[in-house]
Design brief:
There is one protein chain. By secondary structure, this protein is of the alpha+beta class. The protein has one domain: 2-Layer Sandwich (Alpha-Beta Plaits). The strands form 2 sheets. It has a 4-stranded antiparallel beta sheet with strand order 2-5-1-6, with helices on one face. It has a two-stranded antiparallel ribbon with strand order 3-4. Helix 1 runs antiparallel to helix 2. The N and C termini lie close together (about 10 Å).
Length: about 110
C-alpha cells in the first residue's frame, strides 16, 4: 500500500543542519527497509500556479490554493504493508524533520 507523508511548514527551505541530517538518516532507513518510493522538498506557495481548465475555463493564476501561513514544503511517498506501519513512519518522519506531517493513503 502506498501513502504520501506531507511535511507542513511555514517557511520554505527552513531545515537546520541537525534536521537535514535526521531527514537523511530517515531516508536511508526507508531505502534500506524497502519502503522508499520517492521524496522531495517543494517550492513555496509563491512559486505555485493554480490552473483551472474545467469546462474550458482556461483560468490560471499565480499562487497556491491555500492562503494560510502553513503549506506543504515536501513529501515522502512510501510503500508499506499496513496503515499502522504508515502511521509509524509518519511519526518517525515528523520527528526527523521536526515538523508536523499529514499522512494520506493512495487510492
Amino acid at each position: 500500500m502506498r501513502y504520501v507523508i506531507y511535511v507542513i511548514d511555514s517557511i520554505s527551505n527552513s531545515g537546520t543542519g541537525a534536521e537535514i541530517s535526521a531527514i537523511d538518516a530517515f531516508n536511508d532507513r526507508l531505502q534500506r527497509d524497502g519502503q522508499w518510493v520517492m521524496a522531495a522538498g517543494i517550492g513555496a506557495p509563491s512559486t505555485a500556479t493554480l490552473i483551472d481548465n474545467r469546462d474550458g475555463h482556461d483560468d490560471s493564476r499565480a499562487g497556491s490554493l491555500f492562503d494560510g501561513p502553513d503549506f506543504y514544503s515536501g513529501f515522502w511517498i512510501i510503500d508499506v504493508e499496513s496503515a499502522d506501519e504508515a502511521r509509524g513512519l509518519a511519526e518517525a518522519g515528523s520527528r526527523a524533520c521536526n515538523r508536523r506531517v499529514e499522512l494520506r493513503p493512495f487510492l
